[in-house]
Write a structure and sequence with these properties.
With 140 residues, the protein is an alpha+beta fold. Helices cover 26% and strands 23% of the residues. Strands 1, 2, 3, 4 and 5 form a five-stranded antiparallel beta sheet that branches. The N and C termini lie far apart (93 Å).
Length: 140
């Protein structure tokens, strides 16, 4: 007897298509919830807040005075966003913010296109000669 004769023939049966009404209701409810939740915001991707630059308020900027040196400015405001090598006597503090999931929940507005822009000019000795853009900064 060969090994091929030992294999039992397959018998195909029709599946039992008589489901109870409770099973049909349960399957419909699960399918309906899956479809409904696929568009729900609870299942959306978490997005992080994107702050870029240094957040400075008018109160912080008003601490600056003409006649301060660069170290004093660094102590009050921190490092500038732009220190141009072609204009070493100018520091630019720019701030942009794109609200992510948490920012939107808290109602924080986006800050776009460098609308908060503070420029500090120094002389050759590193002393502040002019400050521009305090009015573009938020008050609080």
């Amino acid at each position: 007897m060969s090994h091929l004769t030992m294999i039992k023939p397959l018998i195909f049966r029709t599946p039992n298509t008589t489901y109870s009404p409770f099973r049909k209701l349960t399957m419909s409810a699960i399918l309906g919830m899956a479809v409904a939740m696929s568009g729900c915001s609870m299942l959306s991707v978490y997005k992080i807040d994107l702050p870029q630059g240094t957040p400075i308020t008018q109160t912080d900027a008003q601490k600056l005075k003409v006649g301060m040196n660069q170290n004093q400015v660094l102590y009050i405001l921190g490092s500038p966003a732009i220190k141009d090598t072609l204009a070493p006597n100018r520091w630019d503090y720019i701030y942009d913010y794109k609200a992510g999931t948490e920012g939107r929940r808290k109602g924080i507005a986006d800050v776009k296109n460098a609308s908060q822009h503070l420029v500090i000019y120094f002389d050759a000795n590193g002393i502040v000669t002019r400050i521009e853009g305090i009015e573009t900064l938020p008050t609080a």
